[in-house]
Amino acid sequence: MSTLLVVYSADYLKYDFGPGHPFTPGRWEALHDLVSSLDLKIEWVESTPCADDDLLRVHDGEFVEAVINASSNLTVPYAGFMGLATGDVPTFKGMHDASKMVCGGSLLAGELAVSGRQKRVLQLGGGLHHAMSDRASGFCVYNDLAVMISGLRAKGCRVAYVDIDVHHGDGVQAIFYTDPDVLTVSLHESGQYLFPGTGFVDEIGEGEAEGLSVNVPLFPGTTDDSYLECFEAVVPEVLAQFEPDILVVQSGADAHVMDPLAHLCLSTHAYDKIFDRLIELAESITGGCIVCTLGGGYAFDSTLRIWSMLAHKLAGEDLPENLPHAWLKRWRQHIRSSRWHSWHDLSSAPESPDRNLHIRDANRSTIERLNSHLIRAN
């Protein structure tokens, strides 16, 4: 059993948009409780806030100033144009400091992974991939992933970023769209059907970075087999060609069939295989250097199972059959099924063979079009 470094702070829970908002910090709180209950060798590392200079490497000063003012309940002119005071990103007192703590955790996770202390690091928070350089978006104030990647770039690292959230990793892609030392790969439900409406195969980067933005937009209803086929058709090859020093993974859990905000239909078995492959690829390409953050995931039970599964994988441990009984008892009121007690789904999603063949063929066509764009770029 190897020691897994896990970055966390109770102050992450201050990143709170209020009652009824889907991005509830209760997910992080329950996950911390669950991971703490597991028989894993973990070294907990306390997050610290990032510096304003770390933010300003990826965010515009005017936008950061607007967030600071909104955090103090000051009026922010044209807040909506900066993505603030919206339904997705309502402002709250202390928003700037709470967001800096999340960004600091991701920045620290990246630094730990390349320090030689441990090559695998889990950031038990973050994954705020929608925030743009000049505006908040999609539950994301600041882009902690971009702050981490920028910090790694400052250390001379070539960074490969893989995003498995059901929503396109648009903010990370946009911020590094012209950087030849950052590869971004996003597998997501097609923007034709889902927020943020981007992430199509012709978005491939610009200038010296042409060919280094790779998008796999998937058809709604995609199940395990088709998703994994697309993953294998794209991810291993582009990672190997890029030869990164570190792999950064946004581990959103909202492509699961139970998630209420999207339409992909993955099971926990798919995530089991995805995490194994990402770790294998890191071992073969980066010498094992990998950082995983969290991300989206809005069905409490499936999200917590998937993220705690990730902790096991990074620690190199097999999943036990059942989740800790004491933890289940503490969080039972939040769990949809009273029969749920194991890491894997109790049953598979209902499938229509004809529909699955249609979706498989649509996704294969997407991969063909993606390859044609990448071939032209290279």
End-to-end separation in angstroms reads: 42 Å
CATH class: Alpha Beta
Mean pLDDT across all amino acids: 95
CATH architecture: 3-Layer(aba) Sandwich
How many strand units? 8
Order of strands, main sheet, comes to 2-1-3-8-7-4-5-6
In total, how many domains does the architecture comprise? 1
Helix content: 25-40%
Question: Your description of this structure?
Answer:
This protein has 378 residues and is of the alpha/beta class. The protein has a single domain (4-337, 348-377), classed as Histone deacetylase domain (Arginase, Chain A), CATH 3.40.800.20. It contains 11 helices and 8 strands. It has an 8-stranded parallel β-sheet with strand order 2-1-3-8-7-4-5-6, sandwiched between helices. Helix 1 (26-37) links the parallel strand 1 (4-8) and strand 2 (42-46). The longest helix is centred in the C-terminal third of the chain and has 25 residues, at 353-377.
